[in-house]
Give the backbone structure.
Amino acid sequence: MGTVNKNIKKVVTLFSCIAMLTTSIITTSVGSVSAAGYDYSTGLKNAIGFYDANKCGKDVATNNVFSWRSACHTSDGSDVGADLTGGYHDAGDHVKFGLPQAYSASVLGWSLYEFEDVFDASGNKTKMLQQLKYFTDYFLKSHTDANTFYYQVGDGELDHQYWGSPELQTGSRPAKCVANSSKAASDILGETAAALALMYLNYKDVDSTYANECLKVAKELYSMGTSNKGAGDGQYFYRSISIYDDLAWGAVWLNIATGQSSYLDDAKTFIKNRNENGDNPLAHKWTMCWDDMYIPVFVKLSELTGDSTYKGAVEFNLNYWMNTLATTPGGLKFLHYWGCLRYAAAASMVATIYYKQNPDQKYLDLAKSQIDYILGDNPANMSYVVGMGSKWSQHPHHRAAQGGQGYANNANTTPAKYVLLGALIGGPDDSDNFLDSVVEYQYTEVALDYNAGFVGALAGVAKHYGNLSIPTATKTPTIDPTPTPTASSYVVGDVNSDGSFNSIDFGLMRMDLLCISGLPDAGFNREAGDVNGDNKVNSIDFGLMRQRLLAIIPKFPVE
């Protein structure tokens, strides 16, 4: 994966001079810690708040949970005559890389889309929308015209030679990478299109004008990515090994946002393409990450089409994670040594979302076991989320949190000046051992993409184990030997109120979701369209209706 390139670069450019510095290692014998009592809602709040620590631009201090962050890099884009301020720093460094930023925005948007009820019930929706808008504000201004999109600000090689707070990193930074008619960046454009389409879906009831602008730009970026195919540039810090999963991800969300079948056709075509490693998409072993969106696409295609091929692809992947993937003695599913917890969290998010289609307890068990490991149910008896529990990493690899403490001042042994609350750190090795040192960045680094899947996983676990008061639309039938129909009684799915659910209801539902005129003036019952009982009528219900008509499912979830 592309992370290996990132590892090599950081070792060469930043830490070769300190490779022999002493580090402390936490080792414990394998044991068990009670998994009871984790506050998933507070964890979700903190994980969302983490993004404030990585904000960039003129408005960093606005609505920021960290008093030690303020304006920085306020001239970004001046070298190309554009305002490219804003957005988020990638990790402990300060480059605004295109691929992980777009990935993080789309995954966070997906989390809110799937678990809006959890964000509402836990009081985290407002903050989540603020973070998402900070992403999309930056994406919108980076799209300077219909055929141009700037996607990286800052030179990774130069940036990684600096150790200090972003507020003190003065001077100009280059608008390093741009997509246009002659420079392809399909992967980044596809991911960004997905993030913007999701913002349309999540924000259209808040500010329809802003949401529509997001959708317009999503379409334009997707068109750029499909008309000029090729991978973008990440200075080998973030090198993509496939563009087609990213384009498919953008196409899926544009289909949901617009209802246009051409986008769905694109997604089904693109997702068949193998990556550079030649991996079979239908027997995929990796999980969702900044360079791999195959499984998330399959999750949505399974829902939208009811095609068993896509369902089989998702279940192959999750079964591999549950039954075959290497597991540490303490129970962590271990995919890769660099930032291993991001992968466990991302797979957990996928599992909780797929559970909505196939409510098998094993998917929740997988997610809960991994999130509990992260929060403290591990051999080290520590939380791998800064500020959570009674013991966490004191040396996160994050320059702003270090407060300007440089390596020359023994930052490897000096705790961070500020508590980087909510940050998911890289995690232990495959034996559950953890090196708590700022120079051991494969263990202690934090990043936008780390927390993205973690937020979604926390929301999914909180839904089922968080003791939240989430309204449900489960209907309790009245026990009456001779029931008398009333104005409020209806057949689930029967939106035209003719007494049965059939293809006519399916067609009317489509018209309603796409705001197409021609719905009947009387007798249309939108409430009956909430077939999964989440108090919302959306594409999930539409997908379930299709599955019911095709006899893929015997009944609706609320029946």
